[in-house]
Each structure stands twice: as C-alpha cells, then as structure tokens.
Amino acid sequence: MEGRGVFGSKIAIVLATAGSAVGLGNVWRFPFMTGQNGGAAFILVYFGCVLLLGIPGMVSEFIIGRYAQSNSAHAYSSMGHRRWRFIGYLGILTSTIILGFYAVVAGWCLQYLFASVAGKLNGDAAYVINYFKSFSSDPFWPCLWAVIFVLITHVVVSRGVKRGIERASKLLMPLLLLLLVMIVIASCLLPGAEKGIAFLLKPDFSKVSANVFLEALGQAFFSLSLGTACLCTYASYFKRDTHLLGAATQIALLDSGIAILAGLMIFPAAFSVGVQPDSGPSLIFITLPNVFQQAFMEMPEVGYVISIMFYALLVFAALTSTISMHEIGTVFFHEELNISRQRAAWILTSVCALLSVFCSLSVGAYSGLRLFGMPLMEFCDFLTAQLMLPAGAFLTSIMLGWFVSKSLVKDEFTNQGTVSLVFFRVWHFTIRFIVPLCILLIFLHQFGIL
C-alpha cells in the first residue's frame, strides 16, 4: 500500500517489536512462574519452548504482514482466499479487548509511580494491603488512571510509525533496560541475595513435569504476543530485505533476557527478606512494596529511589505493549475506512477507554459488572488468553502450513532465495506439525483436560 510508513532501521524493528512483547507479564508473571516450577529448570524448558514454538510462530506472522504491507485483516486475505480474513479480524478484536483491561493494570502502575514519588507507600504490611484495596475499590481514580494511560498511548500511535512508534520505542526500551539493570544490581547487592540468585540459576529438575512443559509453552506463547495480530501489523512496516528469521530470533532473545533480568530483580530482594515471590498479581502492588521497604530498611533513601524506579519500569513496560495493541486497530480503521490516522486512533481510543472504565469498575466499586459469573475484567482476560489468542495462533499456523502456496511462503521466508533453504525446511515442518500440536496442548491444558 502506497504511503505506508516503514521502520527506519534494523534496531528500530527489534526495539519496536520486542517492545510489543515486553510487558507486565515479563516483570511479574515470568518470575512467578519460575518460582512455582523449579527455578532455572523452568527457564531451560522455557527457552526450549521459545525455540520450538515462539520463533517459528513469530516468523509466520512476519511473513503474512511483510508480504501484504497492510493491516492484519487485509494481510490474511492477501495470502490466499478471503475466507482467511477472519483471522485478522480475530486478532484486531483480541488486541482491542486486551488493551481495554490491560490499561486498568497499567493505570494502577501510574498511580503507584506517583504514590512512590510522594512517599505514600511507606508503612507496614497491613498499610500497603489496605492502600491497594482502598485505591482499587475507588469508583473514580482507577478509572481516571486507566483512561489517562489509553490517552498517552493514543498520543504516540496517532503520530505514525516513524514519528510515533519508532521514536517511542527507541526511547522507552533503552530506559526500560537501564532501569532494570540498575534495580538488578541493587537487588543482587542485598544481604542474602545469593540465595535468590542460586534459586533462579540453579535448576531443580525434580520439579519438572509434563505440567511444567505446558506452563512454559503457555508463557512463551503469551510473552511473545503470538495470536494478537501485533507481529503481523508491525511486520507490515518492515523493509523488504528484512531477515525475518534473524529479526524473530533477536526479538525472542531480548524478550527472554528481560524476563530473566526481572527474575534477578525480584528473587534476590525477596529472598533477602524471606519472602517467596509467588503471590501472583498481588506481587506488584502488595508484596514488592514491602520487600523494597524491608530490604533497604537501613538505607531508606535507596529504598525510596528503587521503588520509584521499579514503578517507572512497569509504566514503560506497559506502554511499549499498549502502543502495539493500539496500532493494530488504528491501522485497520485507517486503511479500511479510508480515514486519517488521527481519526482512526480516536475510534480505538474511545472504545478502549470506555472498556477500561467498565473493567476497572468490575474489580472495584461495582463488582456486579459480570459476565458468565466473572467480573468483566476477569472475563476479558479469560476470553483473550484462553480462547482468542490460542485460536489465532493455531489458525495462522494451519493457514500457512497447509493452505498457502509453499513457493509463495518460501520466497517470502528466504527473501527471494537469499536465505538458506535449510532453515526454511525446518521452519515449514515446524509450522505444519509441531506448532499446531503445541498450541492444541496449551489449549487443552488451560481447560484442565490435560
């Protein structure tokens, strides 16, 4: 499509696309999953899953997006029959719903960043628990912060690919890495931190089971944004000579590296004060404020700075993800309705802001906002994570592996023959057989069938 933006450099491709994958899940979910499933043993299994499922799945969406150079709905239909267009629609709907409830948690991070700056997170464990309960149940402030986060995302996306997404990625990702490394260093210097480091890096294979493999597969699947149409959309801005396999490998390594750094940030500090970081979502807003306060009790000024840095890190991580999710729907409305990017962005912003308000209220002031017995926010999480994401990735692998011309896929994968055919044969076999089977196993596991 004429007039579409493109990423200006290889580093922009890696930073922007890795930013879409790096999010709050890397900071709390990966350490939480690691803690439950054998420490370093889980990390080794996770790396295997990234190679087995993650990178081939990423390359699949890259092929579709770069080939079509258009929004995801049009991209899927351009690879073959128009009937495949619904996979693109599914990805757009999935990312919109995710952005709606993700903004709620991102808004909580904004609140905690400002609370950290104001010194309002100082107090005993009961105070921190009551602070979160009081804030999250308020009918106004959580909604406002969620809408503000959507609006911040809107400002970036409405400026376009180079002036908005690329510039933001080049700023946010280095800042995120810098903050993460600084907190890791401070955490690893704490008394008793070596126990946390050993737990993270010393494998306990006695805890490895079939369930651990499935958990690792699921973490790799969600961490790399497979099934959201994000990778397909960003690939539509790739230059034609972009090495797709190389880009996918670099992005997967960066994403996994950040997840491990997050573990090195949390485990040493938690072990230093005798806390096991396995408290799930409450880790960010209840457990860690107490951990930082106790760990740096003799240096309260350092604890104050670390707390600010940590919540700034969360905000940056959340923003790199929300930008990519917003872009998916924005470019769809922009191209399909033939309207300006600014107007298209406002359509998505309005929808997501409204959804974020209802999701926020459903887990706070108005718990009666439920669907199928779950708070709206919990239902949106369940719907996307356990149904829509696996379905999108599964259908993508089936489409490319079985229904799209092999010669067309080969030309796109090899950049018209400039990349080794050996890698293509391995990838094509993986995408036809291994990836669909792995996703099917994840799907069955989520519903307790396996």
Strand content: under 5%
Strand order of the largest sheet: 1-2
Return Rg in Å: 21 Å
- Low-pLDDT runs of 5+ residues are none
Q: Spell out the helices and strands N to C.
A: HHHHHHHHHHHHHHHEEHHH
Helix coverage percent of residues?
A: over 70%
Shape: globular
- Biggest beta-sheet profile: 2 strands, antiparallel
By DSSP, the count of extended strands is 2
Based on secondary structure, the structural category is: mainly alpha
- The total count of helices amounts to 18
Mean pLDDT: 89
User: Roughly how many Å apart are the termini?
Assistant: 45 Å
Helix and strand layout, with pairings?
Elements: H1 10-21, H2 24-36, H3 40-68, H4 72-78, H5 85-117, H6 125-136, H7 141-158, H8 161-188, H9 193-201, H10 210-223, H11 230-235, H12 244-272, H13 282-295, H14 300-336, H15 341-362, E1 370-371, E2 374-375, H16 376-403, H17 406-413, H18 421-446
Antiparallel strand pairs: 1-2
Could you explain how this protein is built, in words?
The longest helix is centred in the last third of the chain and has 37 residues, at about 300-335. The protein has a two-stranded antiparallel ribbon. The chain has 18 helices and 2 strands. It is globular and about 65 Å long. By secondary structure, the chain is mainly α. The mean pLDDT is about 90. It has helices spanning about 10-20, 25-35, 40-70, 70-80, 85-115, 125-135, 140-160, 160-190, 195-200, 210-225, 230-235, 245-270, 280-295, 300-335, 340-360, 375-405, 405-415, 420-445, and strands at about 370, 375. It is about 75% helix and about 0% strand.
